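Justification of resources, computational component.

The compute hours requested in this renewal are based largely on the per-chain cost of generating structure records like the one below. Each record pairs the submitted sequence with a full structure-token output. That output is archived, and it is also reused by downstream analysis tasks.
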Amino acid sequence: MTLRICILEADDLHPSLQDTFIGFGQMFKQLFSVHATEIEFQVFNVVNGDYPGSEQCFDAYLVTGSKADSFGEDPWIVQLRTYLHQCFVDGEVLLGICFGHQVLALVLGGDTQRSSKGWGLGVHCYQLAAQPEWLTADAAEFELLISHRDQVTALPEGAQLLARSEFCENAAFVLGDQVLCFQGHPEFTHDFSRALLQIRQSIYCPDEYQQACASLLREHDGQQVALWMLNFIEHAKEASRAQIKARALALDRESLCLA
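The structure output for this chain reads:
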């Protein structure tokens, strides 16, 4: 069965990168297509106020990264937070990456702040803190490309920590069968990260920049994380079907009792 994924694109590429690299929404399409061909994507640029129509249905909504702060008060960020809160109330499956991870934590009652630890850059290693049945892993660690200085400082109530590191204590979390978020960027490539580091070099201290560039010699596990995300969507669909079946059975029993 075809999966339908709505990508809420929360940033535009830097002008100097637009001739060389695809947009953030397209990066996710490319990432997921390695694992499954039966996926339909629609990309909505929320910075420009572009959202799905009320008649459109999706199996999951994915919020991309952004240079913006999730706790900012720009009108488009406020609108996005309101939209995501309603999606959660409506029972939609939500995925968040970097900015998306942070904004969903905030919307659901957690906290996100500018970190005193500074920038996280390059390839970063995380340790798994939990392993639900849909999270298939052969090792206790995984690596992702990162670019952030904001962090989730408190998880939403009821959320389960999935991954951590010394630098980023709340690097991934899951909330029931509905929300899955990662701080790192599974969709990034080494070339894109290298180009991003170069255009932002002036805002980093020299040691940060050199260490980040050196880390790009290591591979990362973006494809593994993409598979986990797809597994989670399928798991959420199965859980939803089971809940519907349970409600139907309960109604049948109630009808028999009333007969």
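The domain at 3-258 is CATH 3.40.50.880 (Rossmann fold). The longest strand covers residues 120-128.
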